[in-house]
Amino acid sequence: MIEKDIELIDQKIAKESEFVDTLISEVNKVVIGQKSMIESLLIGLLGSGHILLEGVPGLAKTLAIKTLAESIKGNFNRIQFTPDLLPSDIIGTMVYNIKEGDFSIKKGPIFSNFILADEINRAPAKVQSALLEAMQEKQVTIGDHTYQLDNPFLVLATQNPIEQEGTYPLPEAQTDRFMLKTIIDYPSKENEIKILRQNLDNLNVKIKPVVSINKIINARKLISEIYMDKKIENYIVDIILSTRNPKKYDLSSLDGLIGFGASPRGSINLAKASRVHAFLRRRGYVTPEDVRAVCKDVLRHRIGLTYEAEAENVSSDDVIEQILNKVEVP
Question: Quick one: 313 and 165 in the same domain?
């Protein structure tokens, strides 16, 4: 691609991404701090991906997605996952109508733009599978009928890392369907004071819809035009391959710590997320910094660690950090 074309895309993206600041500003009226969580939500929304959020209760996970939905005139449904939940509670079921003597379809809460799957690891495998299949196929089958899900369709699943009793951990093959896994941390002291004041003063901030659904759909199409150089593509693939064969990339220290590496879905999502990150920075081209910025969120749930790694207290984030420090940056 010639420089003139890249310049035109850059100008187009700079203009069309103006709504991002307005959207973030609206969300920040209610969600204080948590900059990385809000950015992850936007990457998932604009990159047509789903997000797995992990954090202790009370860190505004539910509030953030509800506020984002209100900001873009989207429909929002919250599903509280419990051990007694059934697949039909999510996707819907056939209901017998006595008057008409026939069955009719009752659609479940999955039919919405934004789905909050609260504490997804509290429901058994068959329920998790029903949700994850809908995420992958963007459609559900009830009886003999297949229904397309809303567009955009974003699932935000939360996991509580501190309570493991009575939970059903997501299998690796299932977590791979999430574009990102974001770890939510506690707010800073300054932000905690702001949160405290806002709640003590009973400030009921009303969120206005500032962006239309069509704007989001058009932005997704634009993001696919963002220029990614072949060197960046090679850089992404090198990062992924180094999780599978660390010795080849002079990462012998990781040999024995990685049980399995990232799948091709990892490289696809790393490329997509890097493009969206460039869009959020109002650029029409991807840089290595975009790749590095999203790498941990995209790969932390795609790398399987061995017992040896757990014994040495090595996390997937530590592994990714070593890879990023070693793989040559273009």
Answer: no
